[in-house]
Amino acid sequence: MVGGSGHTVIESLNRVLVSRSALAHNFRICAEKSGGVPIMAMVKADAYGHGMEECARVFADSGARAFGVAEVVEGVRLRQSGIREPIFILAGLLPEFFEAVIDYDLTPVLVDGEIVDSLAATASAHGKKVHVHLKVDTGMGRQGCRLDQAPAVVHKIISHDSLHLAGIMAHFPMADDPVHGNSDRVLSDFLHLVATLRPLRLKDCRCHIANSGGIFSVDGAELDMVRPGISLYGYGADGMEAGMTNGRLRPAMSFVSRVLQVREVPAGTGLGYGHIYTTTKTTRLAVLPVGYEDGYVRALSNRAEVLVHGCRAPVVGRISMNLSLVDVSEIQEVRPGDEAVLLGRQGNDRISADEIAGWMESISYEVLCLFGHCNTREYRE
Ligand SMILES: *Cc1c(COP(=O)(O)O)cnc(C)c1O
User: What residues does CATH 2.40.37.10 cover in the chain?
Assistant: First the structure.
C-alpha cells in the first residue's frame, strides 16, 4: 500500500497476503510435534518470502528460542528490528564480518577450523565471548566439516576462552524421503560423533539436526533443538503437506491479482508472444496484470491455473513481463476489477504452492520466495 496525496490509498493490483494467525498456528504444530524442545525459526530468504521482521515477531511471540538466517547482513537487520533471541548465521562467514557478529551479538555457525583462531582473537580484543556452533557434513556434501575432522575442530574451538561452543549441528540431505533410510543413517552418524565428544564434557552445547522433514518424518531427530522452515509457512518438505503433517499446517501466503480487461476473441486467434496458444473456439479472455516480473514465471505459460469466482481458469499463451491471459469462457460474468487468486483459496477451491511448483518443475520453497520477494506484502491476523 502506498499513501497518495489527500485521502487516497493506492493499492497494488498484485498483492501477497500473509496470515499471521497461520504462522502462529504452524509454529504451534511444529512445537507440538517436536515435543517442546527449543525451536530455531528459520527466517532466511526474508522468511521464505513472507517477510523476515514480521514473521520473526510472530514466532518470537509464539515462543521461538532462536532464529536462523543465511548471512550476517540479514542477522543485523533482524537484530535492529528488536529481536533479542540468538540469531544464527547459517551460511558461514568471512573475516570481514567478525566485528558485526560481535557488535550485534550474532551466533556464527563455523564450517571448519579455518577462521577459529582469528575469530577468537577478534572476540578477545573486544573483551567478548562469542557463542559459535559447528556444522558437520553428514552427507549433504555441501558445507561443514567432515565427521572425522570434527573432533579436531571442536578441540580448536574450546581451546579459546573467547569462544563458547554452544552447539553442534548437521543437516539431513533427504529428510523428505522416509523410504530411503538415509535419514536414520545420518542421524545415527551424527549421534555417534556426539557420543565420541562426550568425554570433553561440553557445557551448554546443544545438538541439532532436524529441519521440517526431520521433525515430521524422522523419529528421534528432535535432539536439543529443531530448525523448522517450510512447515512454519504451511507446507511439507515432501511436497505433499497432507502426507507428512496430516494436513494440519496452514499455508500462510496467498497471491491475489485483479482482472483488468475481459474480451472475446474468435476461434483461430493466436495469443501472446510467439502465439504458443491458438484458440479453437470463441474464447472469453481475462487479462491479468501479472507476469514474470511479479514472480509469475514464464514456465507457467499454458500450464498454470488461477481462481476466478471460485472456478479454475487456465493460463493461455505466453506469460509476459506484466500481463497474462486466462480463459474464462466457462465462468459466468467475469468483469474488470474481479479478484483472481493465483495462490491460495477462493470459494471452495485452493491453489497451493506445491501445485504451482509442479507446473514450473520446482518446489514450494521457490514459489514462496519468488512471489514474496517480487510483490507488495500485506499482513492479516
Ligand atoms: C533452511 C534450513 C532449515 C529449514 O529447512 P526446511 O526444509 O525449510 O524446514 C534447517 N536447517 C538449515 C541448516 C537450513 O539451512
Answer: 253-380
- pTM of the shown model: 0.94
pLDDT by residue (tens digit) across 149-171? 999 999 999 999 999 999 999 99
Q: State the closest ligand 1 atom to the C-alpha of 228, by its place in the atom list counted from 1.
A: 9
Question: What value, to the nearest 5°, has the Cα angle with vertex 306 and ends 273 and 335?
Answer: 85
Distance (Å, whole) CA 187 – CA 60: 28
CATH says 253-380 is which class?
mainly beta
Q: If we measure between CA atoms, which residue out of 38, 10, 4, 25 comes closest to residue 215?
A: 38
- Per the structure block, which three cell numbers stand in for 50? 513472507
Q: From ligand 1's centre to the CA of 90, what distance in Å?
A: 9
**Could you tell me the fold of the domain covering 34-245?**
TIM Barrel (3.20.20)
The string of DSSP codes covering 80-127 is HTT--S-EEETT---GGGHHHHHHTT-EEEE-SSTTHHHHHHHHHHTT
Spatial separation of the C-alpha atoms in residues 117 and 157, rounded to whole Å: 8
Mean pLDDT of the chain: 94
Residue 241 pLDDT grade (very low, low, confident, very high; cuts 50, 70, 90)? low
Q: Is the pLDDT of residue 129 over 90?
A: yes
Residue pLDDT, tens place only, 84-107: 999 999 997 899 999 999 999 999
For ligand 1, atom 10: residue with the closest CA: 211
The per-residue pLDDT for 243 is 57
State pLDDT tens for residues 345-359.
Answer: 999 999 999 999 999
Cell of 271: 495469443
Residues 6+ apart with CB under 8 A from 53: 77, 78, 81
The grid cell for 171 is 543437516
Instruction: Report how far ligand 1's centroid is from the alpha carbon of 306 (Å).
Output: 30
Q: Which of these, 180, 159, 183, lies nearest to 171 by C-alpha position?
A: 183
Mutate to test the pocket of ligand 1, among 69, 90, 135 (most ligand atoms within 8 A of CB): 90
Cα separation values, 179 from 176, 190, 249, Å = 9, 20, 22
Query: Where is average pLDDT lowest: 28-32, 186-190, 195-199, 239-243?
Result: 239-243
